[in-house]
């Protein structure tokens, strides 16, 4: 199983980090060990002073596919959830400055908690889903998949040109604006529409 994450997919988030809008979809990988054991809190790693939350819609691949055409991409996933792409922003800034890969900042143990899955049939339009992240009951990130630069079916098609997708693979589809530093004791809750999908304590 692998975790593939899309970067820079919402204008507001690109602007808040002063990045350039990509002409081509940007993606990176996290290992299976990025998913914490069930009901584990998120432990702030000691190599970073600035861990950010990035709430993202996550799709689960349901069969093997390579060179998937965009028009057929919808047949390759049937469940979705929310995940948090935890990012060591201070480490990432150093790596970016030196043109180095992001893994140390993005792919560490526990950096990709996911919530409970919901069936795609429960969603009217996958390209118009409201989702949000509350930190200590305050909404910090409010997003809608309609604001994605690259939509879900395109993402699946694009990634599958490079990497074979397999059943159980997860795709994080990018974060809207509002990322911020987390602190010990924070309580994070993610919602799709008004349904709670994920909750997590920070330790
Ligand atoms: Mg992200």
Concise description?
With 203 residues, the chain is an alpha+beta fold.
Task: Provide a descriptive summary of the structure in words.
The protein has 203 residues and is of the alpha+beta class. It has one domain (3-127, 145-183): Fumarylacetoacetase-like, C-terminal domain (Fumarylacetoacetate hydrolase, domain 2). 15% of the residues lie in helices and 30% in strands. The chain has four helices and twelve strands, in the order βαβββββααβββαβββ. The protein has helices at 11-16, 89-97, 103-106, 152-162, and strands spanning 3-7, 26-30, 51-52, 55-61, 77-84, 87-88, 118-119, 130-135, 138-144, 170-172, 187-192, 195-201. It has a six-stranded mixed beta sheet with strand order 2-1-10-4-5-7, with helices on one face. The chain has a four-stranded antiparallel beta sheet with strand order 9-8-11-12, with no helix packed on it. A hairpin with a 2-residue loop joins strand 11 and strand 12. The longest helix is centred in the last third of the chain and has 11 residues, at 152-162. It is globular. The mean pLDDT is 96. It binds magnesium ion (MG).
Contiguous low-pLDDT stretches (5 residues minimum) are: none
Q: Mean pLDDT across all residues, rounded?
A: 96
Count of alpha and pi helical runs: 4
Question: Which class do the helix and strand fractions yield?
Answer: alpha+beta
Identify the strand order in the major beta sheet: 2-1-10-4-5-7
Overall, the morphology is globular
Specify the biggest β-sheet: 6 strands, mixed
- Write the H/E string, N to C: EHEEEEEHHEEEHEEE
